[in-house]
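Q: My labmate handed me this sequence with no annotations at all. I'd like to see what the chain might look like in three dimensions before we decide whether it's worth expressing. Could you predict it?
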Amino acid sequence: MCQVGHLDPRSHQRVLMKTGLILLIIGHLSFITGALVHGTVLRFVVDSRDAVSLQYAIANTASVISALLTISCGIAALMLSRYLAPATLKWVVFTLGASSSLGCLSCLLGLAVSIGLTLGSHGRALLAPCAVTDVTLAPVSRECPFDPTRVYSSTLCLWAISLLLDAMEVVFGIRCLLLAIDLLHLSRCCRGAHRGKVSLQAAPAETPDPGQCLGLLRLDSVGAAWL
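A: Here is what I predict for the chain of 227 residues:
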């Protein structure tokens, strides 16, 4: 009996359980970080006429959605580690692993763009709701809905944490996806089809029997003699 990905069922269960727990923890941390950024800063900053603040909101919302996908993938991986038999559960883990990895990768790029825009503009979009746009000249003021002296560094720190968590989500989401591929035997099917194609291309052409060639020559010579 062939081993799937060089792992026995017990090893698959252990690896799936560890991966599911890690995805569950990372997903919750990423969700909390995104909620903190939105609740403390972005809900005051977002303006439909400002492209930068819209980009902030879209990147942060995508980060929260990808965190929910990661949590779902972790729960599905934990269920699959308990019950390896159902094929439907394997396909669910495969789908959630692929969507979570792609979503977190796009959020990773979006957060990197947000950090770059904030550093390039020195946080002007973050301080747009305040009357004074200079952080050094704007202590805690009644005209600002938040503390302008800390919003710049706090938002950047939270985005950096989100960036690190998204990178970890991508790594463990791909790991979960590969485990689902092994359990579904998809890698073996691809290798079998490739080997069959190579064997058909490398099959030698049949050579005629020498006795057959001599018989044909004799018949040709007899026919010529009769003529």
